[in-house]
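pinging the channel bc i need a second pair of eyes. not urgent but kinda urgent?? the chain im working w is below, pasted from the shared doc
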Amino acid sequence: MTYSDPTVRSQTRWIGPVVLAGVIAILATIAVSVYRAAQPHHMGTFTSTGPTLGDWTMDVDVCHTGSRRSFTGAQFYSRKDKRLAVWMIEDPLRGLIPSVNSTTTNDAINIDPANCTVLTGHAHDTSTSLRPPAVIAGEYTVDCTVDESHLTGHVEFKGCL
């Protein structure tokens, strides 16, 4: 027969609930951190002047990964004017290529990188999603001309699906 002191048992009874509460607190902290990292956040503006692309300013409030349309890069939109879109295509051979859907055409206009004085940036996978499409983050800066139009902009983004 095993003897168990009731005093020791009552003094150690709290250990299980305290350990469980600690584990729950740690898991909740991790869950909140992952949730915040995956929240979409994008700031930036693209501005166009000239007849080819049209005269407009787009405050970016929608961002998607380019993998939704089978390219590496990102897509930027505005809820205010659904005709406007800027795609930043990261081509492994030609480099970064801006593509614009504007108010003047129904087709996207690809801008030759040679016509850009500033064309920088990169989108990277943030590994917050195990299934495609990947969640991406990054930034782009662009200052390009196409025919008689001029496109400028800078956007920073994270949590783009």
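so The first helix runs from residue 6 to 12. and The chain is about 20% helix and 45% strand. — does that match what u expected or am i reading it wrong
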